[in-house]
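User: Let's play a game. I give you a shape written as tokens, and you guess the letters that built it. Ready? Here's round one.
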């Protein structure tokens, strides 16, 4: 009998053990009501394959020689796939399941599976990049094991910042990430559009404040000024036309420093008027993109 035949026998034995768990010694309640489900398994296999189960079973309650665990942050579908993987090494995953499986694998500390799923997500990036870059980035930042995915998302953000500004999840990005992007000279969006997005991002952080600036109280203005403060120095206000300033910027003039507001209005009345505020040059669309230092942190 050759080595391959032995491997097939072992694989089949573990598959039978997975399918027939009459002698199980672990009961696992997965998910949250009303979508929870109970699974049965063997402690020795779980502990051998996952540090998570080694830690949990060491402190889990035991009744009639059986351990009982509850896993609330993993859904039944993903856990069923992972449990079969734990027993057999077989991973049955559709593209639609990859992201959820990655989250579940991180929860259960299945490091080989985490590496594989990160690679799979990156390989299939053309399917999700334009719509899910920001959620993917946020996930990678939160999960220490997802360094590979985090580096990939950072690279894409630097190479194609328009993916961030055009994303429906733009308002959820961190202040550090927003300021980093605003500081770039090569953004291709019109400056007035960048300003509008920054206003949208600011108001999103204060859902109780009206979107109508005419109704803002002094307290509301103070809160909004504190939120938008780090962004203001990176907006190229003098690259915005007079008409766009009147329609899109001036309604929010309470958020601007007094000297800057005066300089902008004087500039549009008479462009020869000396400007006291720091002025940034117009942005220039990039020709060649230089990738960032992967250690850059704007989480």
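Assistant: Ready! My guess for every position:
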């Amino acid at each position: 009998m050759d080595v391959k035949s032995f491997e097939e026998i072992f694989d089949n034995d573990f598959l039978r053990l997975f399918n027939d768990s009459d002698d199980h010694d672990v009961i696992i309640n997965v998910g949250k009501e009303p979508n929870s489900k109970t699974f049965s398994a063997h402690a020795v296999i779980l502990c051998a394959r996952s540090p998570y189960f080694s830690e949990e079973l060491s402190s889990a309650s035991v009744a009639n020689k059986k351990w009982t665990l509850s896993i609330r942050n993993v859904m039944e579908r993903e856990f069923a796939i992972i449990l079969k993987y734990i027993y057999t090494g077989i991973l049955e995953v559709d593209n639609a399941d990859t992201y959820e499986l990655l989250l579940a694998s991180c929860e259960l500390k299945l490091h080989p599976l985490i590496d594989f799923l990160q690679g799979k997500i990156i390989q299939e990036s053309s399917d999700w990049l334009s719509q899910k870059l920001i959620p993917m980035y946020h996930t990678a930042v939160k999960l220490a094991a997802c360094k590979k995915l985090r580096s990939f998302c950072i690279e894409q953000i630097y190479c194609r910042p328009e993916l961030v500004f055009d994303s429906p999840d733009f308002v959820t990005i961190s202040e550090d990430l927003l300021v980093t992007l605003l500081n770039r000279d090569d953004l291709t969006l019109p400056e007035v559009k960048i300003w509008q997005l920054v206003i949208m991002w600011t108001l999103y952080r204060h859902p109780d404040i009206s979107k109508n600036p005419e109704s803002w109280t002094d307290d509301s203005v103070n809160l909004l000024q504190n939120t938008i403060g780090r962004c203001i120095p990176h907006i190229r206000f003098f690259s915005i036309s007079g008409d766009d300033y009147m329609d899109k910027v001036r309604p929010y003039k309470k958020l601007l420093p007094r000297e800057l507001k005066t300089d902008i209005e004087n500039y549009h009345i008479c462009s020869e008027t000396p400007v006291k505020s720091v002025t940034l040059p117009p942005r220039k669309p990039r020709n060649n993109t230089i990738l960032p230092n992967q250690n850059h942190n704007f989480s």
